[in-house]
Specification:
- It is a single chain.
- It contains 24 helices and 9 strands.
- It is mainly α and 514 residues long.
- The strands form 4 sheets. A 3-stranded antiparallel sheet has the order 5-7-6.
- Strand 6 and strand 7 form a beta hairpin.
- Helix 21 crosses helix 23.
- The protein is globular and about 90 Å long.
């Protein structure tokens, strides 16, 4: 902060002290004019300098002098809140009119082309290869660039199988372990943060999680409350500013109008909830099942910011923990049913048990609230070679067992028949159009991959506005007659008399000989 010129010279000529900054600029000028290019100086993360006030003053002087040279351009980056607190002087400087301020590099709603490009760029940069990625996994990553960064950090330099889903429990666990080892190694071997002292990221993170749990506050943890030794404060700040696990924020002190305090927050709320859930199971529950129960009843509810994340991760933990008492505690929570219906489809397929499938079937038969979501998640598991356990074939088996009344209540009623659908209902028009588009645009050898989607159409023959459904299946049948006959024979085993009648009418209309 107190000598920017010397700092830059050390970066550019790390093995020599023979150059002055003026000599450097003079040589640069010749090169830039010869090549007709600018020299661009990028100072990334100016908020990371411990002495921000001094840096802001000297930076203003330094830039104003640099800009006397027409071949130099300067790019600065800074966290927004620290910019406003420490570097707003740049906006009233002598070069203010020559400055362009950019508040965001990506628009709030990036388009699909930009998302695809960013995914490709990230995977290339982190050297990640894969044998395909599902639409669901693609959307999970491009709709949350922080999750994309965590995924790439975790699996860099790896060759992955098909990425069907982003399993956050496994991802966060692997990421935490990998980054903990990496950061501790950097600190101890290279002292990359240029500070002395012993530091273990896991202890620091644990202190933050403990504070959150015992104080029942999940944002803005006072920095001074989680530093083991006040003498190491500078080291902690350097660490916080150079990683993406946790971040240092500025918070106005409630005790005073003109003072501010520094606090710590997790960069990613879901990662916070993952760590809190792990601590609750590994420490809280192990010490006292009663205290654990009281805590989740008091803090993991519809009034708490922990509900969505922690309920999900507690569900996943309960799947791997064979402790019957723990499972019984979680099952009794009011959120468990909703979490089960959602998260069962985020398990690795082989982890889904026979009992899980019975529970799902019961929810469908009882026409419970999440029936439409269950049906949709089974539909999109049409690749039965990948999903060999819980898949669309399992849905077909259930549908064949339903009476006409059950079929109407549990299946037909879950589809919206206009172009928008209604609320949570499955958009029938959109689904059938997508299947029809697959039929029109796919090569013959590709259609076998989507075969189960075409078979689904038969079970929709008695849905409202079914003419489009039957027309689409007709086109498929006459291209793939043998598969079509197998589909029809299987569907005719159903107990639903209305569906049997509709299928038979279809068979007669097109003179199909089964």
């Amino acid at each position: 902060a107190n000598d920017l010129r010397q700092s830059l010279l050390q970066r550019i000529f790390p093995d020599s002290t023979n150059y002055t900054f003026e000599e450097f600029l003079n040589n640069l000028k010749v090169l830039c004019y010869e090549q007709k290019k600018f020299f661009v100086l990028v100072i990334d993360g100016i908020n990371e300098n411990y002495n921000s006030k001094l840096l802001s003053q000297n930076l203003e002087i330094f830039i104003s002098e640099l800009l006397d040279h027409d071949f130099v351009k300067v790019v600065l980056s800074c966290r927004t809140e620290y910019y406003e607190q420490n570097f707003s002087n740049l906006e009233t400087s002598t070069f203010a009119k020559e400055t362009k301020k950019i508040t965001s590099l990506i628009s709030q709603y990036p388009n699909d082309d930009l998302k695809k490009k960013l995914l490709r760029v990230y995977f290339n940069h982190f050297n990640i290869e894969h044998h395909g990625i599902s639409q669901k996994a693609h959307e999970q990553l491009v709709d949350n660039f922080l999750l994309l960064r965590l995924f790439c950090d975790t699996y860099q330099n790896q060759k992955l199988d098909r990425i069907e889903n982003i399993y956050k429990q496994e991802l966060f666990k692997e990421y935490y372990q990998t980054k903990s080892i990496e950061i501790n190694k950097r600190l101890k071997n290279n002292d990359e943060f240029k500070v002395a002292g012993n530091f273990d990221i896991r202890n620091f993170i644990q202190n933050i999680v403990q504070f959150m749990i015992y104080e029942k506050t999940y944002v803005n943890v006072p920095l001074d409350r989680v530093i083991a030794n006040p003498k190491d404060r500078e080291m902690y700040i350097r660490f916080l500013d150079e990683n993406i696990l946790v971040k240092r924020d500025v918070q106005t002190d409630e005790k005073g109008i003109f003072t501010s305090a520094e606090v710590v927050n997790f960069t990613f709320d879901e990662f916070r909830d993952f760590l809190i859930s792990q601590y609750l199971i590994e420490v809280f529950y192990e010490n006292s099942a009663e205290e654990f129960t009281l805590f989740i009843e008091d803090q993991v509810n519809d009034k708490s910011p922990l509900l969505e994340g922690c309920s999900t991760f507690l569900f996943f933990v309960s799947r791997k923990n064979l402790n019957t008492q723990l499972h019984e505690i979680l099952v009794k929570q009011p959120w468990f049913d909703a979490v089960f219906s959602k998260c069962i489809f985020s398990l690795i397929d082989s982890q889904v048990t026979t009992e899980d499938k019975k529970v799902l079937k019961g929810k469908l038969l009882n026409n419970e609230r999440y029936g439409d979501s269950i049906i949709w998640n089974l539909i999109i598991r049409y690749d039965i070679n990948y999903y060999q356990n819980l898949n669309i074939e399992y849905l077909f088996g259930i549908l064949r067992e339903l009476s006409q009344e059950q079929f109407t209540n549990c299946f037909i009623s879950k589809f919206g028949t206009d172009s928008w659908g209604h609320g949570r209902l499955i958009n029938q028009e959109q689904l059938v159009n997508q299947i029809d588009e697959i039929l029109e645009s796919s090569e013959e050898d590709e259609l076998s991959y989507f075969e189960k989607l075409f078979e689904l159409l038969i079970y929709m023959f008695t849905n409202k506005n079914s003419w489009k459904i039957q027309t689409t299946y007709e086109k498929y049948y006459f291209h793939h007659t043998e598969q079509g006959k197998n589909h029809i024979r299987k569907a005719l085993i159903t107990k639903n008399e209305a569906l049997i009648k509709s299928i038979n009418q279809f068979v007669r209309s097109y003179e199909i000989n089964l």
